[in-house]
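Task: sequence design from structure.
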């Protein structure tokens, strides 16, 4: 299965240790632990970059401190860095640091990233994908969450009606109000899904060290399902806003 092979190859990259180019000592990811020289970037995942376990509950205050500390140390303008290669590596390490920090500090992006590391494909629901689908007329691969089927159907009818009204330059305040109310409910649902996600984080974190592959897969699937539902709702909210604001 691709899931297993993905996981193990990434883990192998993360665990590969190498020696400092300058003094030959075993080095850390960004700097040599002995001489402090910046090292050429290794293709590690973002968790490994921050020397974190692949867990989802994360001390974001600590992450932030670590980020600022590393940014300062990796700053390419540090005059102590006479070596040209070291300057380039600083630059590369800095950009890796920025990407890693941006991804890990955000709860949703962190979860999506972890799932991708674990070999799970998320549904393509980005704005770009939506627009591409619209322009090419192809059907977007976006499954309506079963518990929302009725609501979404109803809402889409109302949106159609409002669009038609707006074209004629008249809109019905009651309809606008009704759609606005539904938008608010969808936003609340989005928030409660984010809360629900945290309970899966706890499950996942427990399983990282001691769980079986089978158990981990179950939680992975639950998180995937939740994120797909959440991004479906997010897109719907965006569509509603577009109609209301135009
Ligand atoms: Zn060294």
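Answer:
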């Amino acid at each position: 299965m691709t899931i297993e092979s993905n996981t193990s190859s990434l883990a192998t990259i993360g665990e590969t240790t190498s020696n400092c180019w300058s003094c030959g000592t075993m080095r850390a990811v960004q700097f040599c632990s002995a001489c402090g020289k910046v090292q050429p970037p290794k293709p590690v995942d973002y968790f490994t970059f921050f020397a974190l376990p692949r867990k989802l509950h994360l001390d974001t205050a600590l992450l932030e401190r670590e980020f600022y500390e590393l940014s300062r140390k990796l700053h390419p303008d540090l005059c102590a860095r006479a070596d040209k290669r070291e300057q380039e590596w600083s630059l590369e390490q800095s950009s890796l640091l920025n990407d890693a920090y941006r991804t890990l500090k955000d709860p949703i992006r962190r979860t999506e990233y972890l799932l991708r590391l674990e070999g799970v494909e998320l549904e393509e629901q980005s704005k770009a994908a939506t627009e591409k689908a619209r322009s090419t007329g192809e059907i977007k691969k976006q499954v309506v969450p079963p518990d929302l089927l009725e609501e979404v159907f109803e809402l889409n009818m109302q949106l159609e009606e409002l669009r038609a009204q707006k074209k004629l330059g008249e809109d019905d305040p009651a309809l606008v109000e009704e759609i606005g109310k539904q938008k608010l409910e969808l936003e609340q649902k989005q928030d409660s899904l984010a809360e629900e996600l945290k309970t899966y984080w706890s499950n996942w974190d427990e399983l990282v060290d001691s769980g079986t592959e089978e158990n981990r897969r179950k939680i992975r699937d639950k998180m995937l399902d939740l994120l797909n539902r959440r991004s479906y709702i997010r897109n719907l909210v965006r569509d509603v806003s577009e109609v209301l604001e135009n």
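Residues 145-245 form one domain.
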